[in-house]
Specification:
Belongs to the peptidase S1C family. By secondary structure, the chain is of the alpha+beta class. The protein is built from six helices and 21 strands. Among the domains are: 81 residues, Thrombin, subunit H (Beta Barrel); 92 residues, Thrombin, subunit H (Beta Barrel), CATH 2.40.10; 84 residues, PDZ domain (Pdz3 Domain), CATH 2.30.42.10.
Amino acid sequence: MTENDPSAHDPAAPRHPETGQQPAQGGWAGNPYGEQAKPESGGAPQYSEPSYHAVTGADPAYGGQSANPWSAPGSQMPSGQTQQSVYPPPNPYGQPATGGYPVAAAPEPKRSGGKLLAGVALVALLVGGIAGGTVGYFTGGSSGPASNALDAPKPAQQTGNAPAGSVEAVAQKLSPSVVELQVSGAQGAGEGSGFVISTDGYILTNNHVVEVGANGGQIQAVFQDGKKAAAKVVGRDPTTDIAVVKVNGVANLTPVELGRSDDLRVGQSVVAIGSPFELAGTVTSGIVSSLHRPVRAGGSSGDQTTVMDAVQTDAAINPGNSGGPLANMAGQVIGINSAIYSPQSGGGQGQGESQGGNVGIGFAIPIDQARRTADTIIKTGQAVQTYIGAEVKDAPQGGAELGAIKPGSPAEKAGLKAGDVVTKIDDRPIDSADTLVAAVRTRAPDEKATFTLADSRTVEVTFGGQPVQPN
């Protein structure tokens, strides 16, 4: 064979990547990759790069239509046209690659579209499995010495003040002013909470916390720093479940900052501090769950005379929290924790904290009402109760039905009569007798309000005040 013999084989000539055959004259026979024929003069094979549209990627060889990426290689083409690679070039804008030769398009597997997709998915799954197995193999063994958290150095100590508006900040501000009250008397013993309202020793708490020690009993206040001091009852009001006691012989007391309860909003955050189950200084947090909740709580009887217009909260309140502060996130006291809803007690609301634990429904006396009562007690030694002078019961059709009217009372002076049904006081709806009592208790003596009756009449009433005689 001679050098010009077409059947001669050049050992140096490139071979087909799959069959290993050398090219015949003009290049690879049945070239599936779309390269142009090898020149007669020899040298490296020249590869044509498809000229796809820079934006659409359309192949001009097919009249501007996008090339079918899954068509079988070597398919029939119109006469005089050359099959182009169906894979986009590395450079989508058709610029030649650097380094002399254009980059060849990746070879297309000889599979139909559906089979190729399945094959790709299978490969991906297998690769994932192999990779996962490999990782598991390499991480399963020990690659070095063990790491132990006990050997790590301690982090830096916390520094700086608590963030403003945080539970931590409220606790830091209020805790020095909250006391545990240990009470004993002829009828038993117990404990509760209270908070300092003056530097000279006045402490605000619940009546039901201290009433056992009110007449000849003993009351001891235990402060945050462990100091103890004897306390005496200054005055108390069973109808609002508020009492004031005073300690002597303790200097540098820190009074709380009183907020206001008339602008509370449902959903706002609150913090409760007290001594639940004798665990002094316990801090819990939650939100205002509801407002103006009529609750028969406090006092020894739990009857209608002890109805309060409560702030409802889901902050954890338990036996021993009574008398402690409920505060907003500025650390201002907005209520006095007084009662919890306790299904275990059988009677539900207002049957005393000693018969159950926290279920996420607690009640506090609004601080606006407590402030007014405490101020009167400190100044006069006696609480004054707001009243209208009428008996009241639930009306069958809703509202509060008035019963016997006391002669000379605010109700009689306003023209109210037995049988009248009150459905609203100012803008507040009245749906029961307890709601009417609670609404009256929030008002101050001599304050005026408009009563709306079931027959659509309106009556202006001036509330009265009468001294409270504790039992």
